[in-house]
Amino acid sequence: MQSMQTQAIPLPFPKYCQIVQKALRERDGETLAVLLANDQQEIGERIILGLAGSHRNLLVPHTLKLPSPFSEIVISHIQVLVLSKQASSSLGETEGASWVGAYKEQVQCLSLFMNQFLINQTSWPLPVLYQLCRDLRDLGEKADEYSISSGLQKTPVSLEDTARHINKAFTIVATDRMNKGVEARQRGIYYIAGLSIKCYFKVNRPTLCKNIIRAIGSSSNPQPLDSFPIAHQVTWRYYMGMLAFLEEEYKTAEDLFWEAFKGCSWLAKRNLEQILFYLLPLRLLRGLLPSPILLSQFPVLSDTYLPFIQALRRSDIRAYDIALRALRGKLLSLSGGGGGGGGGIWTAMEKGREVVVRGRLKKIWLAQNKLSRIPIKTFQIGLQLASGSSSLSASTPTPIPSRVEDGSFGDLEDEEEYADPAEVECLIANMIYKGYVKGYISHGHQIVVLSAKSAFPPLGGP
């Protein structure tokens, strides 16, 4: 028996206006947000099917009973729905013009809502503000995608404009001095801040996030972050973790990502994956490897990080270098849902090589029965064996496999690495300086003197 596709039931525009009026009268922010969403699948489709026409002059008579500014908001919203529908079903210039037009109408909706309504209200319309801001961001992305691909503009103009409008929303929310507790518009401060910061990452200008952070720090809101909805907390901690990550403040970043991960619903796989893209490298830097069960839940993460994890587990310098070379482009291209993060991941994974070298030095020490005095020459031989006597610097134009398999690394140019004892001495001195190894070097005797108690301090932590 063939399944029948459910046909959307038309919602006549006069009836739609009555439902909007009822939601306003009952201060039902959740329902009003649904009614003003740019949703092409459910309510939006029903509204479009119920239209006798979308020209403003045809719509105005049915909106006269709506309080100001909702007559204008509803009419602009209808234009957004119609133009978005046109854009989704057309190609080329028609598609692009429709996305740009829909974006401009959405700007009108948001501006009217903020400046003539929200500013005089408590917290109940916040769901509407969230919806209007999200739709503006999505339409801005689509308008920019067309305009940039067609050569009309070189930068994401609409998304930059979106950030400015969302910043205005943030100001209206953050500066609410009259309402207190659950009635305060400041209940939306972290949600709107998260939307604003996401825009900054999308346009690759994360430094502008500092303005939002300063504003939250200086706001009159006395409530701790933990008192806000968990979804707001997760988003905020994720982006604060991103900023700390890009500044190479790895301890702070790991703590923030870990808190975001713990608070994120296991059903939100995409969000969990985004957090783990940054959390895993930070854990690897401390020698903490993810379980196979965790990796099996996220195939993209496994494809990206499994070669590094295998190399770390075996203290295999050669395998780690191959993974760095093979996955360099992918690591640099990662945007983390917001741009600007890929370079940070690449930097962290480069630093992870030091953890592999530390592991190899420790294996050499163990092979020497944990002697406290080991010749530099002994470390040199062990490192040469581990690196395959091959230098895999980023500039070496050597073709390498896209995937690392146990014991199979492809054909590599033979360039002696660690051939100079002075190079090995410098490497060990650097490992001692960074705390990976505890001891000192006797340059005159060409011997490494290791601590009898803790020659290789643990990397891991709680």
UniProtKB/TrEMBL annotation:
<dbReference type="GO" id="GO:0016973">
    <property type="term" value="P:poly(A)+ mRNA export from nucleus"/>
</dbReference>
<dbReference type="GO" id="GO:0003690">
    <property type="term" value="F:double-stranded DNA binding"/>
</dbReference>
<dbReference type="InterPro" id="IPR036388">
    <property type="entry name" value="WH-like_DNA-bd_sf"/>
</dbReference>
<dbReference type="GO" id="GO:0000973">
    <property type="term" value="P:post-transcriptional tethering of RNA polymerase II gene DNA at nuclear periphery"/>
</dbReference>
<dbReference type="GO" id="GO:0006368">
    <property type="term" value="P:transcription elongation by RNA polymerase II"/>
</dbReference>
<dbReference type="GO" id="GO:0003723">
    <property type="term" value="F:RNA binding"/>
</dbReference>
<dbReference type="GO" id="GO:0070390">
    <property type="term" value="C:transcription export complex 2"/>
</dbReference>
<feature type="domain" description="PCI">
    <location>
        <begin position="408"/>
        <end position="451"/>
    </location>
</feature>
<dbReference type="InterPro" id="IPR000717">
    <property type="entry name" value="PCI_dom"/>
</dbReference>
<dbReference type="InterPro" id="IPR045114">
    <property type="entry name" value="Csn12-like"/>
</dbReference>
<comment type="similarity">
    <text>Belongs to the CSN12 family.</text>
</comment>
<dbReference type="Pfam" id="PF01399">
    <property type="entry name" value="PCI"/>
</dbReference>
<protein>
    <submittedName>
        <fullName>Transcription-associated recombination protein-Thp1p</fullName>
    </submittedName>
</protein>
